[in-house]
Amino acid sequence: MEPSTEFLTPEESAEVDKALMTAHDKFATRVAIYALRSLKQIAQQNSVAIATLDSQQIEDWVYQDESLRQGIDREFKQFFSHLVISSQTPLKRAAEEAGVAIEGLTVPQVVAWFERNAKRKLEET
What we know:
The protein is mainly α. It has one domain. It is 68% helix and 0% strand. Helix 4 (74-98) packs across helix 5 (107-124).
């Protein structure tokens, strides 16, 4: 898998944009999709499943990522590492609901999970 320098592809952005969610939920969905792409790269590089990655492996990858070397300070790398690590929880839940490993999640499945989750939150309030 070749690393992408784009946050989301135009197709991924369109998939998120058509979902019935708040801007906050759409942002969380975008982060999760990007994190999924990053986690796939990290897992592949370490020859392990995403579910077995630990925080240190993720942080090490972020700090070594060429696309984050130019003009990005340590605090941003730490923040970005935490975003990717935090995204593992909703991705794990989405994968469980879809009956697949995290690696097998598709963008439409991630978007659908976030959309269902957003709807559940609205119904609870």
